[in-house]
Amino acid sequence: MFKVIQRSVGPASLSLLTFKVYASPKKDSPHKASVKVNELSLYSVPEGQSKYVEETRTPLEESISHLRRYCEPYTSWCQEMYSQTKPRMQSLVQWGLGSYEYFQNAPPGFFPRLGVIGFAGIVGLLLARGSKIKKLVYPPGFMGLAASLYYPQQAIVFVQVSGEKLYDWGLRGYIVVEDLWKENFQKPGNVKNSPGNK
Fold this sequence. Notes:
Layout: H1 2-14, H2 59-104, H3 110-127, H4 132-150, H5 152-184
Helix pairs in contact: 3-4, 4-5
């Protein structure tokens, strides 16, 4: 039993050894010319011309191609709308985050003032029963009046800016109406100078 173990361990231990082998040409053999890479049979190029042949499309590939061509205008429209609305949505998100932070750290007395302003809007809705114009005018008017009591400086600035804008819009409207009046309702000549009255 000892001899069998010894013989089986010997060749296995030799396989773990590493050593270098140096080969030198024989002195009496003639020198051969080196073989080029393209002369080896492994790297030989097949004779003949290769030609690219496009594979025929399967019905599934045809239907997918047709679907892509059909959907291309819609996808490009969606990408365009996304690129246009993305900055607006980002600014809206930033405004929302800013408002959230403001409400988290609101100045003292802000929420009672906000409650009074909201209550004034509800009172405006109750007083505006029956008329659509009153429903459009009364709630914002009452809320603006309540807000101007708590924030008078901002109310003065708002009234000044909105007054200038209203004056500008009124002036533009007056100019448009005046031009329409001149074009449509004024006659080209005087009645005295007309050719029929000579």
